[in-house]
Specification:
Elements lengths: L1 E5 L6 H11 L3 E3 L2 H11 L2 H4 L9 H18 L2 E5 L5 H13 L4 E6 L3 H18 L22 H14 L1 H8 L3 H4 L1 E3 L6 H14 L17 E9 L5 E6 L9 E3 L6 H13 L8 E8 L8 E10 L2 H5 L8 E7 L1 H4 L5 H16 L3 E4 L2 E2 L3
Parallel strand pairs: 1-3, 1-4, 2-3, 4-5, 6-10, 9-12
Antiparallel strand pairs: 6-8, 7-11, 9-10, 12-13
Length: about 375
Amino acid sequence: MIVWINGAFGAGKTSTARELVELIPNSTLYDPELTGGALRRLLPQKRLAEVTDFQDLPIWRRLVVDTAAALLAEVGGVLVVPMTLHRQEYRDEIFGGLAARRIQVRHVVLTPDETILRARIERRAVSASEAGTGGGVAGEPASAAYADSSGETGTQAAERVRRWCLDHIGPFRDALGGWLATDAYAVDNTTLTAAETARAVADAVTAGHAAPCGIVQTPEPTGETLAAGVLLFDEHDRFLLVDPTYKPGWEFPGGVVEPGEPPARAGMREVAEEIGLELDTVPRLLLVDWERPQPPGYGGLRLLFDGGRLRAADADRLLLPGAELRAWRFVTEEEAADLLPPVRYRRLRWALRARERGTVLNLEAGAPVGS
């Protein structure tokens, strides 16, 4: 099990985590900041210069999952992880990866008053500046260290970190007012010490108030997979997309074809499971796309089917399983460009062209071949 302690920089995550491992038997502290710091030494400077936050590096998100899983396999028990997550798509990717490894996550967010956050950030910056730590700030978040720090004095580095931390208060505040409000158990530690905050977190976990995150636990593939997606259209010729809880980006209704299952029937089964809609007829194939292996993914065949046009009454009956999907919407091709990952958007565009032409297309890595 993992107890993930979320919160803005300055919320007291790390100090709370250190106290928490003393309260939860057989628990170990894992700070993903260490993984981010290691990447500064592993990745080429050219790649590091492309981001200002290590969380934007796919390798960091992947390593957090892999490291957490490896630590739990090595020491067992409970892993206490203090780490800020305000971007929902990064939460989906990391928590989804953990769920795929059958690792349960209890998500807790610390919510001190914003004046407390700002005061802590200012005090920390002043202390670092007075210490004159050139080339970096002791205790600074590794995330902030990705900003250009060449030739900095201690005062300049402290100011850079202070500005970075203050700039991230707003986005975290927005997350607290949005997806984090329902995803995590909130602990207001405005007037609590680190020890008192840790006790509140431990009590919430023990009592079940900080319940396991409801994420579908889809096992990671061990080889190439066959997946079937279904395009469903409304009366305005827009098509349906769904927002999974366990991975970033929107998706077509559908999923992996089970052994011995006809692909079209697999698409129908997934539509029924995901949105509660029973299709009357077997959907027509639009395209077959071969997705190349790209570690850690294995790739495989991706099929898209035309599920036809839904009546308004059908759309009103759509249901969502909370553990797997959080939202659905009908969108245009243009709107889908902002929602779908590039590989799925390319697949969508060719599927729509195949539907217009009444044909079936064969794709390799998103590009038509043999036609």
